[in-house]
UniProtKB/TrEMBL annotation:
<keyword id="KW-0560">Oxidoreductase</keyword>
<dbReference type="InterPro" id="IPR002397">
    <property type="entry name" value="Cyt_P450_B"/>
</dbReference>
<protein>
    <submittedName>
        <fullName>Cytochrome P450</fullName>
    </submittedName>
</protein>
<keyword id="KW-0479">Metal-binding</keyword>
<comment type="similarity">
    <text>Belongs to the cytochrome P450 family.</text>
</comment>
<dbReference type="InterPro" id="IPR017972">
    <property type="entry name" value="Cyt_P450_CS"/>
</dbReference>
<dbReference type="GO" id="GO:0005506">
    <property type="term" value="F:iron ion binding"/>
</dbReference>
<dbReference type="Pfam" id="PF00067">
    <property type="entry name" value="p450"/>
</dbReference>
<dbReference type="GO" id="GO:0016705">
    <property type="term" value="F:oxidoreductase activity, acting on paired donors, with incorporation or reduction of molecular oxygen"/>
</dbReference>
<keyword id="KW-0503">Monooxygenase</keyword>
<dbReference type="GO" id="GO:0020037">
    <property type="term" value="F:heme binding"/>
</dbReference>
<dbReference type="GO" id="GO:0004497">
    <property type="term" value="F:monooxygenase activity"/>
</dbReference>
<keyword id="KW-0408">Iron</keyword>
<keyword id="KW-0349">Heme</keyword>
<dbReference type="InterPro" id="IPR036396">
    <property type="entry name" value="Cyt_P450_sf"/>
</dbReference>
<dbReference type="InterPro" id="IPR001128">
    <property type="entry name" value="Cyt_P450"/>
</dbReference>
Amino acid sequence: MTVLAEHDPLHLDPSGRDHHGEAACLREAGPVTRVILPGGVPAWAVTRHDELRDLVRDPRVSKDWRRWSAVTNNLLPENWSLTGVVKVTNMFSADGEQHRRLRTAVTNALTPQSVRALQPRLDEIVATLVRDLPRNISEDGSVDLCRYFANPLPLNVICELLGVPEYLHSRIRDLTASVFDHTIQGDQVNNTQKEILRTMAELVTYRSDNHGKDLTSSLIVTRRENPELLTEEELYSTLWLVASAGHETTRNLLVNAVRALLKHPGQLAMAREGATGTWEAVVEETLRWDGPVGNILTRVALVDITIADVTIPAGEAIVAPYSAVGRDPLKYGEDAERFDITRKDKKHMAFGGGPHFCVGALLARREAVTALPALMCAYPHMRLAVDDTAPKPLPSMLSNSVMELPVHLMP
Ligand code: HEM
């Protein structure tokens, strides 16, 4: 039996105006609730930490959007604004053996050893960006940390890992912003998808002619030697997944951490003192309290699934609301809304869980624990140049951060 919630389903906001207000409403609606996605598409959300932790490991859910009844019944709007984050052909939308095949091709490049090997280059990128910040101060005396630090840092790192030539960096940055912008409509959705395909094809052509030690070159070899291991569509889609997921999220982590620290000077002072593990604690608490990923539509019920007395019918889609579970009082207690780097329970779901746990978690954490102390210790008088509520949020249901973060570097 399907038990529908008594209240009207919550419409998830494509413009991301208030991720945490929305997250509180989701928790308030109960452990499992109906939601309406942008474009008027119905789905479900599992809003509590423990229930979501179990769901992402549950073999009764699929990651394959093709199994969603709205897809098989052709009910999704044309040029849907979530197309770029749902209708993909890579590990993100694969189950079982197919998932393992597509994931292994990438995880080989993200082992602890490969991430450690990136450290010298990471240090160099961070040092250059930190040093150059004063050169980018605008006429009003502020500098935008998003544009001149948090964006280029993970973009450069992921492009290094993928062997993306410099002339494609800004195109990848702009296309990523477009895919995560859920307010875009119509032809713009379609054009973004075509441009992504063109750009990934250009990357593959470049690396076929200039073979290197990067992930793109290694995937090209895999496909050449074993075409059934990686189709052309899977190759382009995998490269795009790593390029986009590999920098937008880490950008948000850096921005949200700086914002949280500037709002909580006592905790910033504690981190600056540099006791072992405090920058790691800043990173983990930011991931929990203001994680880079808000609401992500990722799973389809294969059979009727009952959670906390509510049945999600087979064929329906489920949203993982990571912002809501990050502040779940049942998991983190009455002070779940408080940013506290000394919090004992450091476990969170910001990187997902189960077989689809983020492949880039190690790299993202390494980038953040390298970048944050370098930045915050180089500019001990840094402060926000605007009121904390002024920065505009990213126009996204999924990507949780702000578009700009103007700060003053000097007193
Ligand atoms: C998957 C978050 C950084 C690549 C995921 C998922 C989450 C996530 C929540 C699972 C989504 C789901 O529920 O289905 C984050 C956060 C990051 C980050 C918060 C930064 C702070 C990265 C980086 C890379 C990356 C740096 C690439 C190097 C991926 C890939 C998947 C994934 C390929 C799909 C894994 C699979 O389906 O098996 N990430 N991510 N992510 N992430 Fe990340």
